[in-house]
Amino acid sequence: MSKLVINARTTAHRPHASGAASAAAPDVPPAPRWAQLAAKAAALSTVSSGVWRIAFGFGVPVGFTGATAAAYGEHQPGWGTVYCVVLSALTEALAFLTVGLVRPWGQVVPRWIPLIGDRRVRPLTAVIPALIGSAILTKVGMLSLFGGWARNLAEPDSPRGFGALVMTLAYLPLVVWGPLLGAVTIDYARRTLWRRR
Q1: CA 196 to CA 163: how far, in whole Å?
Q2: Please, what's the largest Cα pairwise distance for the chain?
Q3: What single-letter DSSP state applies at residue 113?
Q4: Which of 49, 117, 121, 188 has its CA 20 to 30 Å from the CA of residue 144?
Q5: C-alpha to C-alpha distance for 30 and 188, rounded to whole angstroms
C-alpha cells in the first residue's frame, strides 16, 4: 500500500507529457532575481505613457493648444481614440514579452497558443529580435532624453506648465525600456545559448 502511495505522489508531481515543462530544457537554469525584477520593470515602463495616451485619446485635455488641439479634437473621441488604445495595448504587449525571457513560456510556447503551442522556443528567435528592439529603444530613448523631448515641448502648441510636467513624467519611464530589455536578453542568451557550448 505504501509503495502505491509513493508512486501516486511521484506521478502527481511529474509533468504531463504534453505540458510545457516536458518540452523545457532541463539544463536551463532559472533567471536570477535581478533579471526577473528587470523584466518586470521593463513591462511596467510603458504603463504610464499608455494611460496618458488613452486618456488623451478619449479627449481628456492634456495641454495641447491651437491648431494641434483642433486637429486632435476632430478625431477624439473617434478614430483617434481607437488609435491611442491600440497603440497603447500593442506597446504594453511588446513590453510584456520581456517577462517571457525570465519565465518558462520564454522557452516553451504555452499550450493554448494555436499551431505552435507546446513547442520549444529556439533561443535565437527570441534573442535576435529582442537585441534589435533593445538597440532601437535605447537609441530613441537617449535621443529623446538628450534634446528630442525638449524640442517637442518647445513647439508652440505643445503642453505647458503642469500639462508638460505630467506628459514628461508619463513618458520618462520609457527611457529604461531598451536598456532593461537588453540586460534581460543577454541573461537569457547566457542561460539558453552560451551554457550549451
Answers
A1: 52
A2: 82
A3: S
A4: 188
A5: 9
pTM: 0.83
Q: pLDDT digits over 55-110, tens only?
A: 999 999 999 999 999 999 999 999 999 999 999 999 999 999 999 999 999 999 88
> Contact at 8 Å (CB) between 104 and 20?
yes
How many of the other CB atoms lie within 10 Å of CB of 197? Answer: 4
Cα atoms in the 13 Å half-sphere on the side-chain side of 46: 22
138-185 tens-digit pLDDT: 999 999 999 999 999 999 999 999 999 999 999 999 999 999 999 999
Residues 64 and 80: their CA atoms lie apart, in Å, by 15
User: Can you tell me the distance from the alpha carbon of 30 to that of 28, in angstroms, rounded to the nearest whole number?
Assistant: 7
Q: Are 31 and 183 in contact (CB under 8 A)?
A: no
Q: Which amino acid is at 74?
A: E
